[in-house]
């Protein structure tokens, strides 16, 4: 079993999280015995598509589809047991204490509402303030994510903004209540390199200001190694390695090594990239 890195006074503690999906003719085990603690840090979760990264994040928010069966020995957020919390408790937590930034604003923003109204609504759900006060707070939040002319952007519909601006709007909406836990699911995957760096800088600034903990889900190993403090490597629903981000290049598990070796490198050009090899035995436990 993967050794769990000890975290003093964790914000989030997860032990043996399992997620099953029952279909017409089979049961899919999407997440297998995932355990980790999260402190005041940026935790990256990496792996191929289908490795269970996003399903883990959604389970923490209790946003899994009805077809999902979730079990765990522990899923504790502060003083709240997420396994037994009522939907009313979760409604109070979501947005206010924990928030999830999704990867594509085109599918996350309401196309029939102006973006400013959506940010204001997200704030008023958790704070009893007037519409004018919510508008003022929303404009300040748009400015904090480095959007020029927030008054103009406030009145735009989602189809009128670029991908990079849409992602900043999503960040503003999710972080306006300054949650203690932020789960960012591929927040920069649809952006070009320049805009990606700008969005990450905004996210870093807001995390530092609020003193929040961040779970950053991504396919991009280089980005995670540069941006995060610690990394979980997932394969077929299981955590194979838990290591400091700065030591990702020294990873020992053959799957992590395969992911790293399949990346093109400017300092070591080659004619043919390595093909990632997989072992079904890793589903039952990490292999040395």
How would you sum up this structure, described in words?
- The protein has helices at residues 53-60, 87-93, 105-108, 115-124, 131-144, 150-154, 163-175, 193-210, 221-227, 254-261; strands spanning 12-22, 27-38, 42-46, 68-71, 74-77, 80-81, 98-101, 181-185, 213-218, 230-235, 238-244.
- With 288 residues, the chain is an alpha/beta fold.
- The protein has 2 domains: 1-87 and 182-202 and 216-288, P-loop containing nucleotide triphosphate hydrolases (Rossmann fold); 105-178, no CATH class.
- The strands form 2 sheets. Strands 7-8-9-3-10-11 form a 6-stranded mixed sheet, with helices on both faces. Strands 1, 2, 4, 5 and 6 form a 5-stranded antiparallel sheet that branches.
- A hairpin with a 2-residue loop joins strand 5 and strand 6 (80-81).
CATH class of the largest domain: Alpha Beta
- Major sheet: arrangement of strands: 7-8-9-3-10-11
In whole angstroms, the N-to-C terminal distance is 11 Å
Q: Biggest sheet: strands, sense, closure?
A: 6 strands, mixed
Question: In a nutshell, what does this entry contain?
Answer:
The protein contains ten helices and eleven strands. It is an alpha/beta fold and 288 residues long.
């Amino acid at each position: 079993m993967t050794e769990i890195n000890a975290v003093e006074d964790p914000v989030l503690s997860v032990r043996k999280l399992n997620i099953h999906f029952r279909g017409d003719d089979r049961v899919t085990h999407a997440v297998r015995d995932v355990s980790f603690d999260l402190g005041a840090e940026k935790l990256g979760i990496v792996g191929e598509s289908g490795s269970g990264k996003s399903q883990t994040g959604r389970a923490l928010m209790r946003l899994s589809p009805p077809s999902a069966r979730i079990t765990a020995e522990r899923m504790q957020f502060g003083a709240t047991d997420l396994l037994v919390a009522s939907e009313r408790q979760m409604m109070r937590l979501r947005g206010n204490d924990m928030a999830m930034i999704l990867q594509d604003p085109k599918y996350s923003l309401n196309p029939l509402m102006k973006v400013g109204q959506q940010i204001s609504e997200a704030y008023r759900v958790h704070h009893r303030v007037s519409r004018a006060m919510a508008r003022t707070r929303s404009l300040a939040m748009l400015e904090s994510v480095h959007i020029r002319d927030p008054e103009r952007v406030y009145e735009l519909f989602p189809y009128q903004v670029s991908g990079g601006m849409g992602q900043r709007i999503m960040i503003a909406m999710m972080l306006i209540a300054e949650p203690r836990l932020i789960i960012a699911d591929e927040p920069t995957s649809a952006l070009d390199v320049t805009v990606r760096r700008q969005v990450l800088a905004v996210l870093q600034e807001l995390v530092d200001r609020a003193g929040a903990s961040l779970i950053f889900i991504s396919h991009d190993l280089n980005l995670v190694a540069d941006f995060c403090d610690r990394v979980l490597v997932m394969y077929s629903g299981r955590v194979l390695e838990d290591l400091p981000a700065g030591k990702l290049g020294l990873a020992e598990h053959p799957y992590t090594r395969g992911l790293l070796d399949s990346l093109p490198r400017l300092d070591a050009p080659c004619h043919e990239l390595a093909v990632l090899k997989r072992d079904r035995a890793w589903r039952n436990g990490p292999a040395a």
